[in-house]
Amino acid sequence: MREIKFRGYDRFDQRWVYGYGLHQSIFIDGSSNAYVTAGIREVFIVDKESAGQYTGCKDANGKEIYEGDIVEKEIMESIFDDSKLIGVVKMIEGCWCVVNDKKKVAKNLWSETDVNRVIGNIYKNKELLEEE
């Protein structure tokens, strides 16, 4: 069974925080906060745009891959023009995928043959998606 974890960017401490719960509060005025829970008394307010779930996969360097990460995928058995795909990790119909909106391509994150490398995330490195 895979580990259920979440992460988010704590703007106050300027760092990524990791935990086992993700919650959102919506206030009467329409504003909202997102929270990552790391323990019984450990709750962090995070930017809701940065919050993401752990996929259960690690990249070629052993780094955990989270929803919202930007991944460079080397496709070993390529039917595409390129053998590389750069895209954002998203959940599509119950499957973690690497999605490139410009090329209109989505490829399963997990593969026995393909190699993934985390090169950034959509919260801090959106420019990586524009380069392709």
Give a description of the structure:
The radius of gyration is 16 Å and the shape is globular. The chain has 1 helix and 12 strands, in the order ββββββββββββα. It has 132 residues and is mainly beta. Helix content is 3%, strand content 54%. Strand 1 and strand 2 form a beta hairpin. A 5-stranded antiparallel sheet has the order 11-10-9-8-12, with no helix packed on it.
How many angstroms does the end-to-end distance come to? 35 Å
Order of helices and strands: EEEEEEEEEEEEH
Q: How are the strands of the biggest sheet laid out side by side? A: 11-10-9-8-12
Low-confidence stretches are: none
Approximate shape: globular
Strand content: over 45%
Q: What is the rounded Rg?
A: 16 Å
What does the largest sheet look like? 5 strands, antiparallel
Share of helix, binned: under 10%
Mean pLDDT metric: 89
Structural class: mainly beta
